[in-house]
Design a protein that fits this description.
The complex is a heterodimer. By secondary structure, chain A is α+β, with helices and mostly antiparallel strands. Chain A is built from 15 helices and 17 strands. In chain A, strand 9 and strand 10 form a beta hairpin. Chain A is elongated. By secondary structure, chain B is mainly alpha-helical. The interface between A and B is large, with 53 and 38 residues.
């Protein structure tokens, strides 16, 4: 039996503000436990929360980038629950008036075509503290440094139809967010967390099947794997004549399975009510428009412009757009040098490879657009071979020197001088009489071997095109005195 | 109508331990409160803007400037029990 998979995602995004959402404690990680707290985020009586203007700005930016409507007036609500990760016994969140509503994100859908994923809402809330459970002593240790970190929860409609689409949604979301610079978006560090609501139904069914909520995935791949596992589990349940139970299930990375959390039924009765300690927030239309003007060009728009303006392929434009600063670097190069395709080949090829090996980004390296263009020009002029240019790049990255200096220092200038090249070509013939004999018997493909030998002899400096011509010429002429 | 079961459920959500004789009294109290709300519901408030907040305040925001936090010692001074720089609490399984 064929089932249709239906997925909705909830992403919790930690906003990269200097301070927490409702108090002036630094929003920092990796500190000793309970060194970033104050009466507000510890929920002490008499303390009052005050909303962080930067958190609002980041929420508005994100909402606009996701094509959301901005709520002209919103409030905060208390979500009541007892758990020691929050000292107040409630979380300040938003219930019926989220800051952003009804957005969309375009992703590559399963059919290959662009697919619109509707976003139901994005609301602001405070993160909870961190608990470390100590089974041996039957206690939990609470660290409230994280309590009060601004979170934006972004909730999709159930528009995703496969684990792959869920993966693509997360990838495009993260890419978009990276352009806005509002969050680290690091799932491993917990600055981006994702829960998945998964159900299956017979194709064409208007009604949604019973869903389960998957939690505890710590990478995009884990989200994909957890959904795949869950879809298969639900299939087996239904085909076995049973019903899927609505519940929260935790992904176990090691066992590669989801497990029922068996939470108490009452756990989801949050009794929301308006937060009396925080007054209303209004966002006038002018503020929204002003914010819209500050948005950078987003990845999709950038890709389209690159293919049109520079005539590079959609694929190349896509690779460049993966990093906003690399894309900027490309444009700076393209302003200096007309062949955008060549720049692109270097950036997406060797430059990217060397950056990855050094675990840095183009922006963080010493490489300047002028340096790369210089190198490409040197190859074009025949001053250095394509092969040696790759080594020049490596030294450029490590030393910060310019390419002319490196080529001169290393003696890597390409040999285009006919006399020298002739010597190298003749030497290759003399060193490999067996190959020469084979070629003369008609095995012309072996010429490539001789060219390789000659190139090696020259330390990669010989102009390979010229070497090939000279070798062919000398084979014909019978440079060793014998007729060809 | 509020049942004893409703009272016990609401009490459990709020982690309030009730004595048996309190359940009956609170059931009556809650019923009175709901009757009063029911009375309020009879008023025509279609022309009244909902009161989300009792103070006529709007847009109270603060700049994103860090202020000193409490030291770990100060924060933990109110802890009933502490361990390794953390508040030590009974293990709660969600």
């Amino acid at each position: 039996m064929i089932f249709e998979t239906v997925i909705g995602l909830e992403v919790h995004l930690q906003l990269r503000t200097n301070t927490k959402i409702f108090c002036g404690c630094a929003n920092q990680f990796g500190e000793s436990p309970n060194t970033r707290t104050c009466p507000v985020c510890l929920g002490l009586p008499g303390s009052l929360p005050v909303f962080n203007a930067k958190a609002l700005e980041y929420a508005l930016k994100t909402g606009l980038a996701l094509n959301c409507e901005i709520n002209p007036q919103f409030k905060f609500d208390r979500k009541n629950y007892f758990y020691p990760d929050l000292t107040k016994a409630y979380q300040i969140s938003q219930f019926d008036q989220p800051v952003c509503r009804q957005g969309e994100l375009i992703i590559p859908g399963d059919g290959g075509a662009a697919k619109k994923i509707r976003i139901n809402r994005a609301h602001l809330e405070e993160d909870a503290g961190k608990l470390i459970h100590d089974d041996a002593r039957n206690c939990s240790l609470a660290d409230y440094n994280r309590a009060g970190t601004p979170l934006l929860e972004i909730v999709t409609e159930p528009d995703l139809r496969s684990s792959q689409e869920a993966y693509e949604y997360l990838r495009i979301l993260k890419l978009t967010l990276s352009y806005l610079d509002v969050s680290d978006c690091d799932m491993e560090k917990g600055s981006l967390r994702c829960d998945a609501n998964v159900s299956i139904r017979a194709p064409g069914d208007a009604k949604l099947g019973t869903k389960t909520e998957l939690k505890n995935m710590n990478s995009f791949k884990a989200v994909k794997a957890a959904i795949d596992y869950e879809v298969n589990r639900q299939r087996a349940v239904i085909l076995g004549g049973q019903r899927v139970v609505q519940e929260t299930r935790l992904w176990d990375e090691n066992k590669a399975m989801t497990f029922s959390m068996r939470s108490k039924e009452e756990a989801h009765d949050y009794r929301y009510f308006p937060e009396p300690d925080l007054p209303l927030v209004t966002v006038p239309e002018e503020v929204v428009e002003e914010m819209r003007q500050t948005l950078p060009e987003l990845p999709q728009a950038k890709m389209e412009r690159f293919t049109q303006t520079y005539g590079i392929s959609v694929y190349d434009a896509g690779v460049l757009a993966q990093d906003r600063l690399t894309a900027g670097f490309f444009e700076q190069c393209a302003a200096l040098y007309p062949e955008a395709k060549k720049i692109c080949n270097w950036l997406n090829g060797d430059v990217l490879k060397e950056m990855n090996e050094r675990k840095i980004t183009v922006a963080a390296s010493t490489l300047q657009p002028e340096d790369l263009v210089d190198l490409i020009r040197k190859i074009e002029e025949g001053a250095v071979s394509q092969l040696k240019a790759k080594d020049v790049l490596k030294i450029m990255l490590d030393s910060g020197k310019n390419c002319s200096a490196i080529i001169a220092e290393q003696g890597w200038g390409q040999v285009s001088n006919d006399e020298e090249l002739l010597k190298i070509a003749q030497q290759a013939l003399a060193d490999n009489p067996a190959t020469v004999a084979q070629i003369r018997e008609g095995k012309l493909s072996a010429i490539g071997f001789l060219v390789g030998q000659a190139m090696q002899k020259s330390g990669g400096k010989a102009n390979p095109k010229k070497i090939k011509e000279l070798i062919e010429k000398n084979l014909q002429a019978g440079a060793d005195g014998k007729p060809f | 109508m509020i049942t004893d079961q409703d009272v016990r459920y609401v009490a459990a959500l709020s982690r309030i331990h009730l004595r048996e004789e309190e359940v009956d009294r609170l059931r009556k109290n809650l019923e009175d409160i709901l009757r009063y709300i029911e009375k309020l519901n009879q008023l025509d408030v279609s022309a009244v803007e909902p009161t989300n907040h009792v103070l006529p305040l709007k847009n109270v925001l603060r700049p994103d400037d860090a202020r000193p936090s409490l030291t770990q010692e100060e924060a933990l001074s109110i802890a009933v029990e502490k361990s390794q720089g953390a508040f030590k609490v009974p293990k709660v399984i969600e």
